[in-house]
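User: I'm new to structure prediction. If I give you an amino acid sequence, what do you actually give back? Let's try with this one:
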Amino acid sequence: MRLQRLTLAVMLMASGSIPANAQEEDTAQSVTEWSIESGWSFELGAGAGIGPDYEGSDDYEVSAVPIVDVSWNNRVLVTTKGRLGIYATPYQANNLTVDLGVFYDGGRDEDDNEALKGLGDLDVGAVAMGRLGYDFGLVEAGLEVTQDLTGDRDGMTVTAELEYGRTFFDDQVHFGVTPYVTWANGDYMDNSFGISAAQSGSSARGFAQHDAGSGLKDAGVSIDLGYRITENISAFGGVQYSRLLGDAADSPLVADEGSENQLGAFLGLSYRW
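Assistant: Good question. You get back a string of structure tokens that encode the predicted 3D arrangement of the chain. For your 273 residues, that looks like this:
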């Protein structure tokens, strides 16, 4: 039904069979009414982000990010915001929420940074996630587990977080802050931060061998801010700081060529209907 209605709207606009102003108003109204009735919502926009060019790097890169967000009844979500993926909420009751999903992780290429030369690419691809959230009111406690499904990292992480969020000025402004800590298994740590004997010999930097075992990977905090400009148009942004810990921070990729302090930021504008 969704595809049929959207196709019909496109056909009417292309045909020129109705006046331009009426066409725009009627199409927007019908799509909005249908979205509300059917439970679907759509968001399109663009943004830009900045972050390290590999996990542990002190070199940063800026990238443009298209924003595409399609959701159904707040239970099924396909999005490019945050992490490109598809997510579902199979259970939500009594302040408890269960989320499941699969998202894409691009891994890293040895061409991303001079420090990676000779280490080979780290391919990842599809990553499964599961999350439990419990809402205490203004604060939600969350526990997220991720597991690599494809690629050669074969890693698993467990992240515990506390998310505080509030809205102001009749819900026009949203503010949120989320401290978190992440544990990673041996495969994730060794493949992301370890230096094998072979890599030590082929590294352009001549890195010493480094074994990275399971343990706490990082701790950090993210802050996000949103502003609803109109009923449909919103501007939003966020900053994130994390500090690598343990064997991750001791890796030559971090201690010698990068930084244990990791920063990121994002700014975007979108239209929702």
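You can read the tokens as a compact description of the fold. Here is one thing that stands out. Helices lie at 2-15, 20-38, 186-193, 197-202, 246-250, 252-255.
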